[in-house]
Design brief:
By secondary structure, the protein is of the alpha/beta class. It folds into 2 domains: 276 residues, Aldolase class I (TIM Barrel), CATH 3.20.20.70; 109 residues, no CATH class. Helix content is 38%, strand content 11%. It has 16 helices and 10 strands. The protein has an 8-stranded mixed sheet with strand order 1-2-3-4-5-6-7-8. Strands 9-10 form a two-stranded parallel sheet. Strand 5, helix 4 and strand 6 form a beta-alpha-beta unit. It is elongated, with a radius of gyration of 25 Å. The N and C termini lie far apart (85 Å).
């Protein structure tokens, strides 16, 4: 029986929901007649532009038919699920109609692999050509490139899209061989390298690119994941790495069994560490290393780094540089600039920092002001960690309690 457009939309929007590389998806609520604020899992997701605006996108697969059998994927060929496929014109028409009704501001388009990589990429390209050339649609389009497809197809898609991505999914070749035998790391990186090189050849700003890494499906450490992310950023392959806590949707002997819940807190810590890589000039091996290959789920990564590097602390707030200020837990980039501006007029104390609206919840354990250290918690690693995790817990009193912090900072 031929599927109608609404059934296809339901199937293919649901099949796309595990791809987090365009942020959050829609959710249901208990809408009742006469009330306002209805929501529905209709394939609408939200993402953020470079200037901070939240935009709505139609997030959908062209098809969930797939010749691959990736163990972690709901759309793997061996799964008995409802299948559907849009024709390129069908999907272009839906996008334009949604846009005209102000439901969306753009399109996030991905697909299973139907028949072959090149055939699937051709279908995606035809959809984009209809939107751009026939409908003159100039809105945002993010396309998931198909690894292994022809370079000329990738070049044409890059020319029509605002952003492209290729999901690496797993951090190592060994893990890909185990769970995604149709893929290799070189294969999934190929379209990203091509997209970067194509945009650089045209002397334009490189097209925005992203990828997704599944966290917890394989035994790689946080060190392995952050090292890979850092390499991808350094080689200008990616603007953003998205981390997705492993959600068991299939039964497979090679997949881990998650008894309680997906590793969402680990995912959150990786996002925080990624922020340090991109905006705080941290290198991956400062955050994690062979001695501490995994982030502490009880602490944010900056506090985790600070506790492992107490030789740099406490920092005198009136003397340290901008680069040092932004490494103090609890002080962000904006806070660091506020401190620098205020220091032009006076030496700052703790009360001054409060007036500047600098959060001292974490920072106070890692700074001195005019040579003075807060006396609530002694400068001692175990005590500081306890205070950061459980502020009300009783603190051990070490002999370091009476140390002269002015000698450390050089203050008289």
């Amino acid at each position: 029986m031929k599927k109608d457009i609404f059934e296809k939309m339901e199937i293919l929007a649901d099949s796309a929901k595990y791809d987090v590389s365009c942020s959050s998806s829609g959710s249901d609520n208990n809408y009742k007649t006469g009330q306002i604020g209805a929501t529905h899992k209709s394939g609408i997701c939200h993402t953020f532009t470079a200037d901070g605006r939240c935009v709505s996108l139609l997030k959908v697969l062209l098809t969930n038919y797939c010749i691959y059998d990736c163990a972690y994927c709901i759309n793997r060929k061996s799964n008995e699920i409802k299948r559907a496929a849009f024709a390129p014109r069908e999907l272009a028409d839906i996008t334009i109609n949604f846009y005209k009704r102000n439901y969306i501001e753009g399109l996030f388009l991905s697909s299973g692999i139907i028949d072959s990589e090149d055939h699937t990429m051709n279908l995606l390209l035809r959809t984009l050509k209809i939107l751009r050339n026939e409908y003159k649609f100039n809105g945002y389009i993010h396309v998931k490139l198909i690894p292994g497809s022809d370079e000329k197809l990738i070049e044409q898609v890059v020319a029509l899209a605002n952003r492209v991505s290729s999901n690496i999914e797993l951090p190592s070749d060994n893990s890909l061989k185990l769970l995604a035998p149709n893929k290799t790391k070189d294969m999934v990186l190929q379209p990203l390298k091509l997209a970067r090189d194509i945009s650089l050849e045209k002397d334009t700003k490189p097209i925005g690119m992203s990828t997704q890494l599944i966290v917890g499906a394989t035994p790689e450490s946080d060190k392995d994941i952050l090292k890979l992310s850092s390499t991808l950023y350094d080689k200008a392959l990616l603007k953003r790495v998205y981390y997705s806590a492993y959600i068991p949707v299939n039964d497979d002997k090679n997949l881990p069994s998650i008894i309680n819940k997906p590793p969402l807190l680990r995912e959150h810590r990786l996002y925080q560490a990624d922020w340090l890589l991109r905006f705080y000039q941290f290198s991956w091996d400062e955050i994690v290393n062979d001695e501490t290959p995994n982030l502490d789920e009880e602490l944010d990564p900056k506090s985790f780094w600070a506790l492992n590097n107490l030789q740099y602390f406490p920092m005198e707030i009136n003397k340290v540089s901008l680069d040092e200020l932004i490494r103090i837990p609890g002080i962000g980039v904006r806070g660091a600039y506020k401190i620098l501006r205020a220091r032009r007029y006076k030496s700052l104390d703790f009360d001054d920092l409060i007036k500047l609206k600098i959060s001292l919840k974490r920072a106070k354990y890692f700074i001195t002001c005019k040579g003075k250290y807060q006396k609530e918690i002694p400068f001692y690693q175990e005590n500081i960690k306890l205070a950061l995790i459980k502020p009300t817990k009783k603190i051990i009193q070490p002999s370091l309690f009476d140390i002269d912090y002015s000698a450390i900072t050089g203050e008289i």
